[in-house]
Amino acid sequence: MQDYTFHLHDEAGTLALGAALSRALVAGLSIYLHGDLGAGKTALTRALLHAAGYTGHVKSPTYTLVEPYTVNINQQLVEVMHFDLYRMGSPEEFLEAGFREHFNETNICIVEWPEKAENILPTPDINVILSVSGDGRDVKLCGATDKGNQCLARLKFAPNL
Ligand code: ADP
Ligand code: MG
Questions:
Q1: Which atom of ligand 1 is nearest to the CA of 112?
Q2: Contact at 8 Å (CB) between 43 and 11?
Q3: Which of 92, 96, 140, 148 could tie 126 with a disulfide, CB 3.0–4.6 Å?
Q4: What is the number of the ligand 1 atom nearest to the C-alpha of 135?
Q5: What domains can you pick out in the chain, each with its CATH number?
Q6: Which among 56, 38, 37 has a CA at the least distance from the CA of 46?
Q7: Is the pLDDT of residue 58 over 90?
Q8: Is the pLDDT assigned to residue 159 strictly greater than 90?
Q9: Which of 7, 137, 138, when mutated, tests ligand 1's pocket best, judged by the most ligand atoms within 8 Å of its CB?
């Protein structure tokens, strides 16, 4: 298991990390984003989706809890499910909505506020921990499975310091 830590000096750093991640992803991955409000979880997801070819508006699915995007990952169309579980009321809500079925071999799932559904979410492949640091952000990427570690090993990212 290897961790990768970077300082994202400004928003351009977050954009660059999202783009680098989009190039390293494969279908079937799940990525959980940790960090307070304003840490940059949605900004990173938006950057990843735009780098993967999505041209529309990306905002946190605060009320719908999940938003699907069809994007291009390694010349393949892949469904990226972007969750924001901040306002999830109960585990039943998650299970009854069929959200668990989205975590499969073909989708990519990105989850903001996984802490809100701790006991019902599957183990992620990658944990991303974001925090405010000065005017920028610190980010730690942690592989949690072989698939996640392989993805991070492919990551080509050198932030501007
Ligand atoms: P979250 O989803 O974690 O609540 P958002 O992504 O909605 O946070 O908001 C993050 C805020 O921080 C946005 O205003 C964004 O412009 C800003 N931001 C993102 N990355 C950086 C960075 N590396 N340095 C400074 N500001 C950033
Ligand atoms: Mg958010």
A1: 2
A2: yes
A3: 148
A4: 25
A5: 3-154 (3.40.50.300)
A6: 56
A7: yes
A8: no
A9: 137
